[in-house]
Queue: 2 jobs
Job 1
Amino acid sequence: MSDTSTAGTGQFPSTAEVVVIGAGIVGNCLSGHLAEMGWTDIVLIDKGPLPNPGGSTGHASNFIFPVDHNKEMAFLTLESQRQYDALGLNTTCGGIEVARTPERMQELQRRMTSAKAWGIEAELLTPAQIKEKVPFINADILLGGFYTPSVSVVDSLETGTVMRRRAQEAGALQVFANTEVTALEVVDGAIAAVVTNRGPIECTHVAIACGVWSPRLAAMADATIPLTPAVHQMADVGPIDILQQTGKEVAFPIVRDMDTFCYERQSAGSMEVGSYAHRPIFHRPDDIPSNDEAALSPTEMPFTQDDFDPQLEQALELMGEILDDAEIRYAINGLLSLTPDAMPVLGETEVRNLWSAAAVWVKEGPGIAKLVAEWMTYGYPHLCDPEGSDINRLYPHERTWDHIEARCAEHFNKTYGIVHPREQWGSRRLQFTSPFYEREQALGAEFFEARGWERPQWYNHNAPLVERYGVPDRPAEWDRRWWSPIQVAEHLALREHVGMVDLSAFQIFDLEGPGALDLVQRLAVNQCDVAVGRGVYTPFLTPGGGFHSDLTILRLGDELFRVITGAFDGARDQAWIRRQMPASGVSFVDRSRELCTIGVWGPNAAAVVGSLTSADLSQSAFPYGTVQRQTVAGVEATLYRISYVGDAGWEITTSWADGPALWDALWAAGQPHGIVPVGIGVYGLSGRLEKGYRLMGAELESEYNPVEAGLDRPRVKAADFIGKEAYVAARAEEPAARLCTLVVDDNHDSAGQPRYMTGGNEPILTLGGDRIVDRKGRVSRVTTAGPAPSLGQYLLMAYLPPEHAVEGTKLQVMYFNELFPVTVARVGSTPLLDPDDSRMKA
Amino acid sequence: MRIAVCVKRVPAPGARINVTADGRAVDAAHLGFTTSPHEECAVEEAVRLVEAHGGSVTVLTVGPPAAEEQLRYAASVGATDLVLVPVADDGAAWDPQRTAAVLAEALVGLEAGGGTPFDLILFGNESADSGGFQVGVRTARALGRPIVNGIKAIEVSADGGSLVAQRGVDDGLEAYELPLPAVLGVKEGINLPRYPTMKGRLASKKVALATMALDARAGGQRSVRLHRPEEEASTTEILGHGPEAAAAVVDLLSELGLLSEAGQ
């Protein structure tokens, strides 16, 4: 059937400024936001008819639970809810997450904490209180509930229609339904045209907002959008008298039956029962039927009843009173998009000006559309930091079907799960191990994964040190999970003697050529035109002056610069650097898999390393922050005198092949000096925290600038760099917030049990229990939490506005819905341990 | 009453049905499966008769193992006994004669096992996929029982010894009185089949499913090739925009006979 009535009425265009592909919630809102931001020649196309072209938006349950532990998702969801509300298409009904188990009750306390952090009204309900709000629920099987009054149902199809209409009325948008993309043309690495069954459109920008079909579209340009179409089962059951009598689309609170991974949502006279509990069921984009081939719509696939039966039983247990005799009238295997780490995939793809706005659900659609429109318009989003959603976070190995399906299979049933902030993946491990892996295994290393790279978090070999240093265990299971007292013992041993840390997950990029200096100068805030042999610790900024990256650049030659960054950031940083590469004059070589690094730090580090080299390691011959090529134990190595843990020592880098020999030599030479293998638990947390060192993705993000983070330098370099204007402006004004280190004064909860915050966005509150929000609207929350074993304290980092960023100020932190007293111990970057850095320069 | 209903697993309607590249089979990649709509009505009618007169409803299919899905569905709306005669997916033709022969044998076996004949055996008027209109008639003949097709109403006599079945013809209704046991082919419209309830669905999983291994020879009819007919292209005519379109809409509705005269 051809439906010409919904196709564009105008002539099909041959050119456009931007083509948006996909008229679901994201494509529609993206078109609308682009128009509002001044784009005047937008073409929106979809292969299906309007208003429901057959994608996931068309069968969405359309409800929004705003509380999320993840800051980015919570923010984008709240922003979306605001947009739906502004259009009058947001119906507030309230929602209750009910608990059947003690573990879930504990999780609901954590939900309360996140609700507080994001300023969302919420309360805990007793089973009787749940029954008052939802009279047909079986409260006998419940322990309690988490009630959010602002939970709502939105009209995503009408929102899309309104957003389109506005842009059309402004003369900025043409819409063409029933128009299928057959090819994407790329010229010199940039998108050049969209070819459709109605003709080609030459354009400078393209946004793929095709939901489950996005990978197929990206592939037309040899780009990748890593997601899989996945089934979410949903059944509509009714009619149900008590629901019909309300005469409303939704009158009763939506119930999320968290422990069974199901929800029950009123839909007029019937109840929608949805499930995230069934086996993971994935399809490939090419296997999704066309509109004609689909009985309902392409993303409403035939229901596989057997998969749903266990959920039926659980739903009857919860709401048998109304569901027993309700008829199953409509049931689908609805398709939605999943990514390997459960976050959206947004931003520019491998192809310049080819954008991805995919793996987005209705609850966050309008907010993400605005974020992507900002990104396309201003070079980086203003709404919030997009690090977790940036498509460039994903390495090539994370974009394979094997990886996508394995990880999605693992996290699908955690959609309503209780996920610990430190939780590790079980699938697709051991993708990248260092040359020291077997040695580390022999030492009982506990491996944590960093985007595919295996890093020892602690070594069970060091278990005897726990007793020696008298490290207490943590009584609360949650605080102990994915943690070991050995981490603290390793920390103390490093501070007392010396430790060796495997840093081979470092991402190392060599930039070489006559244009290399100009390139790094353009990227970096800090002066990179330094003497050969100097290292520069520097941020890269966004155009708006926030942090994009935080890394180290070594000048190894006049025209050779080595960029060293962390495994979590390597893919993003690489994409950012490559975007700025000139057409010629600089080569980019990724040496991450050729070079391995061991950090050797502690009071005895110089003695250990010195015993293996003839080089003069004295401070005068080898000052802090410098690099030398030396022979260590007969191995050619690059030594960088730096420390992220606060004790003297070197990062020693050598070839993959020579790595084991270097490890063995250091290990043997270290024995008389008390050397211990030390995990990332010290390197990435306790060591840096005592020294006030910041971490990308925790303290450092695009919403904050170097002045606020305490990383501004006395002078601004003359050379131009990305974000310079904003950086200069930030230096001239009173910062809206400053990064502070806080000490937990008493960590005992109401039951007298010591607690240890995980650093999962716990809100910092005034003594009166109020949230702290700075003049830019940013909330004060814990960015990192961890032990300071050498100080005997438990520390938190948080940005505080000037009135609270005063040393000695008493505040509170909320953790599992309880309040703990804290004191601002440090404002700015001066460390609590060894404030004059004498240990590092020893 | 003891009633048997014969059903067939068929691709769910609504989707475009593709044929495999070699033209030998339906491409099931995107398809859901269901019970032929006439047969869904037959199951519903049987359940209603048993609700009114007491008894049991046996649902029988000759099909692949996956046809258990259709049997369970029948149980979820009230069928009491389920029987699957599995067809080997051996590529050999399953024509109406072979299907009817197997069904007749199965029914005879079930009657022998149950001690009494089925008072009534229901078929759908025709299957939704192959639409041969033959299996019911052939089965009835093999069993030596009367059959009427196209049935839109069934009334069982007070003594349970006979029934009156009606079907529509061009200028009215035909009513047939049949002694029991008898066979009927029912048509969509005889009733509005119920949906399964959640409780019914769960209960259906506990209904025993009997399997009978039977076979018969094909009658000589074989499928040569499948092809999909050209779709009729539909066009959309825009009658007008805004209030000005009202007159044209009224004209069209009246042309289609959808408007009642004013004052009536």
Note: The first strand of chain A starts at residue 15 and ends at 21.
Job 2
Amino acid sequence: MSAAAPLLSVNGLTKHFPLKGGFFGRSTGTVRAVDGISFDVAEGETLGIVGESGCGKSTTARLLVDLIRPDGGEIMLSARRLGVDLPLRDLRRNVQMVFQDSYASLNPRLTMEEAIAFGPTVNGVSTAEATRLAHELLFKVGLEPKRFAGRYPHELSGGQRQRVNIARALAFKPKIVILDEAVSALDKSVEAQVLNLLGDLKRELGLTYIFISHDLNVVRYMSDRVMVMYLGEIAEIGPVDAIYERPSHPYTRALLAAMPSMDPDHLTREAPLAGDPPNPINPPSGCRFHTRCRHAATVCISTPPGLYTLPGERHLVNCHLAIPNSGHPGIEAVTA
Amino acid sequence: MTTPLVEIENLTVRFSGARDVYAVNGVNLTLNPGETLSILGESGSGKSVTLKTLLRILPENRTTIGGAIRVQGTDVLALSGKALADHRGGVVSMIFQDPMLALDPVYTIGEQIAETVMRHEGASAAEGKARALEMLTRVRIPSPERRLKAYPHEMSGGMRQRAMIALALACKPKLLLADEPTTALDATVQIQILLLLRELQREFGMGMIFVTHDVGVAVEISDRVAVMYAGQLVETGSIRDIIRDPQHPYTRGLLAANLHGAVKGARLDAIPGAPPALHAAPNACSFAERCAHAQDRCRAELPPRVTLGERREVRCILPEMAKA
Amino acid sequence: MSATAATFERLATVERSPGYWSGVIRRLRRDPVAMVALAIIIGLVLMALFSPWIAPADPYRSSMLRRLRPIGTPGFPLGTDELGRDMLSRLIYGARLSLLMGVTPVFIAFFVGSFLGITAGYVGGKVNTVVMRTVDVFFAFPSVLLAIALSGALGAGIFNGLLSLSIVFIPPIARIAESVTTAVRKIDYVEAARASGASSMTIIRVHVLGNVLGPIFVYATGLISVSLILASGLSFLGLGVKPPEPEWGLMLNTLRNAIYVQPWVAALPGLMIFITSISFNLLSDGLRSAMDIKA
């Protein structure tokens, strides 16, 4: 690892939602949405996060911008710890987020320039200055200020609205932009335009992205490193080529195998997994994936494997099969 | 030569309202028995509307439908009353993106399937129940006896999708219409449902029209593909033709936008602009304003329908020029 | 064009869409039913404001000699009441108290109820529970009964009538305000505003109020007709306005004995209440559809 501290460092981040029900909203269970995850993001890189519904990828995003309070763990930005020597204000200024639903993300009563200028004005910038900044940002995201600054959200297309949302996130001159399924709701042809824009902005402004998506093709195109999540935990994290070419976790392999084929002569023969992803309420013991894993052994049911660093690269896997002497009977078979 | 299961001739659909919407503008399509066709397109392309016209489930009072649709030789647009009821669910059946809209929340899965069978085939209650069990088994729902008594909300997303497919296939339709049935599902569940539909389509020997925006899904499921843009079919052909030799610039852009095999960090060859608002019937190529190859002719007249082979057609001047 | 040239163009050259409210007014003007209702309401308000100039006679001057004249009597176009007072003048003057009793309680309740509901909806948690459960207690009583009970306890009179009606309308408005606010609070643009570090007060002012006050206002205008009828009912029972003040509900009460003698005259105050309340309801309906941004 390089000596420089990572831009963002997350350690043991945890969020459990109590499940209310019954009389007087008594707690009837716990959704372990995010369960003690740790990862780093280096300056200038793009970390892709993939996983199915309930894996905790959106909760992770919201924890990183403090839209919800974590139950445990620490967030560090440039070696400063949130709540200790990093005020919340500084975190929010440096970490901004773009949401999936471009329409719901914009107040229907505000014009585009008002929407973008809102953030700077509440942080002490004058209205005139904020409006000027809004116009500059509209231009930067490819929307002519003259035509779009005075418009309302319902007058714009989905792609245009998402450009405005990106402009709003950039108004703080953040270091990190979290894109939570930000292109997923767009039509494919429009999505490609927005991805190009994101690439341009990253190069121009030296941004760092956390790119959350369920689309593995898009994540592969965008990311330097990829984190695969399953039921609130990290299944595997590593460089994008390692994840896609040499996936080590059976779940990552299943996700990749579940991608529709692009070759009409080599169609998918068999679904890699059966059934739906289990509920993050009361997740399985041991390795959380053992209920769907074809390699599951006794050790998987009893003991959580924990992230293991594979030799040679920053590639971590949460699977007994990858850990020497884990007690999994299949290790020889796999390594052989 | 086989008689087609579905013949669509010059179909037009217009919605009237504060501003008229020309949703479908002259679609020609045939589907042979036992064949699967994907209609590939983005939102607003008219792919769903075309599908709903086949089942006649568009709001009658503000929809104007032109052209002809024949399913097994029957004129679908002329059907009414009992004949229409027999057509829906009996000859043609449909599955949706959200099974909660297709399944009735107050009846169990078993009751709903049995009721459909009794209504369409005049079967007894016992026969209906037997068929319900058979159908749940055929869609590979584990412990089907128990699931007969389950309500839709008690099932997981993938299970509900299977239950909806069981309901749609209960009367052994000749044609199954699928409106993005896997779009809302997780990746690992989507592939299960796609494989299931592929198997069932063969088992039942039915024709299937599958609407999707996802090229990969179309590849997995279909024999043929029709690419739709602004209410028109811009390109039709076998799945191999479309994937390996796309002719229409829009098809090419759509395939590139799937990012399969895209080089990381390289600029994407994105189609600029956005689809047109369909407030008037097209009198030129609808794609011209986004097209890198557009010429004056594209903006002046409707593009020609160029036939490149058996059941392979492109609405563009490029292949015509290449042929000449 | 360079970035600076484009960005530093004068703000005046920016093409601006008409604002939200001008759109609402434009759509409302295309709705003939709502426009007729609005015209009637404006007419009623003008009638109330200028009653001394409009009314042909003194609404209080009675005469035992010309009691209960029919409609069309020379000098008394709408007849006279049981004390020989001019019905037309009394109906014109009646608009003052009746509109006051109909509109004021809803107006007061709109502010108090919105404040309670928006606070409960935005803050959530325990505050929400306390406010909304209290509101629910009031919901246990039918509004008519509640108005009568409160007025009865406070004693008759215009002020007490207004007060009790205001209290009656706070719970329904608070409940609507709470549900609309709770819905808005969960929308992404509020989340985005929180992520920008804005204070709760700023978020409520910029992002919540603009999106919730409209629906609450529409609901409140619908309540004006209820308030009118309740106010008339209170007066009818002798709990609101006291004789000899002209007020439509009270007039309906005092004329009820004359229903066999002059049924048409006796029905006139009821007709006024009906026209006023239906006009407010139709205007409220028109506003509701005009405010639907997707329409």
Note: Chain A has two domains: 8-260+279-283, 284-336.
